[in-house]
Design goal:
Chain lengths: 216, 231
């Protein structure tokens, strides 16, 4: 596990020879040892095709490759940082929330429409996540940014969890999500409770929620 | 026989009734409320997640009826409140503000409507006149009151400190850092305006609120922009 939390807004990553890290460009705060930062034109892993894929999906964030040996401090914009460890499952997260992740993880993009069809696309639009989201798969850890602190809510088959789309950060595990609406006549006449749209997550896994309704 | 909540609170089941909608803090910025069929009032749109079954309904005019609605409109202490009811756990948060829990046993809490996150449905909310103090806080002339038995959650910019005021020890606070108070307190407005202030040489602490009596004052480690802070 290369990441360790210094405080709630900074993480320290250990870089060893032969092990790559990816991080958001410009997120390095300080480093020790011989570490090189190279801008990653492709915006992550995979070849040119993955890069085009990400560009098209608007899930490309400027990333850099971190290599060498030493320790690096990461932080960005004063946002809270949460470390998520993956053991073979897939993490779904917005690309701009990614602070840093291990090179052992497989990066990909997922079309929202592939989960829930048209409703999936609507959900992406409403939650401001766009039609695509980034997936990270494999063994390794990820540092994810959020406004305010992050808390985990376990999702079990008996207890589906509903999340405010603006407060949703990421989820992993075998979780299906769909947009549920509680639209009534009140919302039409402007007397809504402000909770008309919710993301319903069901299955088995964990969802990460931030203590704020602000996007990054 | 129909039981009223007031009767229950006096009786032996008081403890049970209090534990119905349990407010607890998850970290310092998230409020988790465990509900079993009952309701809480919360700031509109402050839900971040829930499990179980929940319904959200906007309460026009803060849920105080027509009279309350009109009063709130006139006093500018408008708050958009929703009633959350159901079974399960509901999490509330607002712009990563720090949250403080306040337990009320029949006493009155004075808080700015913008700092109030959630209250037990059994608590009554209203408005009261603050006079010059309110204006100095940059919050207007009126404030919100919460009274009854139950819990309320108030928000602050940064972790709030609770300061006790007793007969021997009155307390003076900066209007911009004041967020709420409870108990039997009388407040007065102090100004330290001298001729230096008019010369533009003021210390930035020209106005203060002085609390006397018995009670608690909640102060945040941050100051709102107020007229007082500029002179």
């Amino acid at each position: 596990m290369p990441f360790s939390e210094i405080n709630s807004k900074m993480v320290e990553a250990t870089v060893l020879p032969g092990q790559r890290l990816f991080s958001q460009r410009g997120a390095m705060l300080a480093y020790r040892g011989e570490v090189s930062f190279t801008p990653n034109l492709q915006g992550g892993q995979g070849g040119v095709m993955s890069m085009i894929g990400r560009r098209v999906a608007n899930e490309d964030t400027p990333l850099m490759t971190v290599e060498g040996s030493g320790t690096v401090l990461f932080g960005h914009g004063g946002h809270h940082v949460q470390i998520i460890n993956l053991t073979g499952d897939t993490l779904y997260v917005e690309a701009d929330r990614l602070l840093a992740f291990e090179g052992t993880l497989q990066q990909g993009t997922m079309f929202m429409g592939s989960q829930g069809g048209v409703m999936g696309m609507v959900r992406g639009q409403i939650s401001g996540q766009g039609l695509f989201t980034t997936t990270l798969k494999g063994h390794g850890s990820v540092a994810v940014m959020a406004h305010g602190g992050v808390f985990e809510v376990p999702v079990t088959p008996q207890r589906p969890v509903h999340v405010d789309p603006q407060a949703y950060v990421a989820h992993h595990g075998d979780v299906r999500n769909k947009l549920s609406t509680a639209l009534g006549w009140r919302d039409m006449v402007g007397r809504g409770s402000g909770e008309a749209f919710q993301l319903e997550l069901s299955g088995n896994g964990v969802v990460y929620v931030q203590a704020s309704e602000e996007k990054l | 026989m129909r039981l009223h909540p007031q009767d229950l609170l006096a009786g032996p089941c008081a403890r049970y009734l209090h534990s119905v909608a349990m407010f607890r803090l998850q970290g310092s910025k998230v409020l988790a409320v465990d509900m079993t069929g009952d309701a809480v009032k919360a700031k509109n749109g402050s839900m971040v997640a829930y499990d179980g079954q929940m319904t959200f309904k906007k309460m026009s005019g803060g849920g105080e009826g027509i009279r309350g609605m009109v009063t709130r409109r006139i006093t500018g202490e408008q708050m958009t409140v929703m009633e959350v009811s159901g079974h399960g756990t509901c999490w509330f948060a607002d712009r990563a503000s720090e949250i403080n829990l306040v337990g009320l046993q029949g006493d009155k809490l004075y808080v700015e409507s913008s700092n109030l996150l959630a209250t037990d449905a059994g608590l009554r909310t209203g408005t009261s006149f603050t006079g010059l103090r309110g204006a100095s806080q940059g919050n207007g002339l009126f404030t919100t009151t919460v009274e009854g038995h139950g819990q309320a959650a108030i928000m602050s910019d940064g972790p709030a400190v609770v300061l006790r005021v007793s007969r021997q020890y009155p307390l003076t606070v900066d209007p911009g850092a004041y967020i709420a108070h409870q108990g039997n307190l009388s407040q007065s407005f102090q100004s330290g305006v001298t001729f230096r202030t008019f010369m533009g040489e003021g210390g930035g602490e020209a106005f203060q609120i002085r609390f006397e009596g018995d009670g608690l004052v909640y102060v945040q480690p941050s100051e709102r922009n107020t007229i007082a802070g500029d002179v």
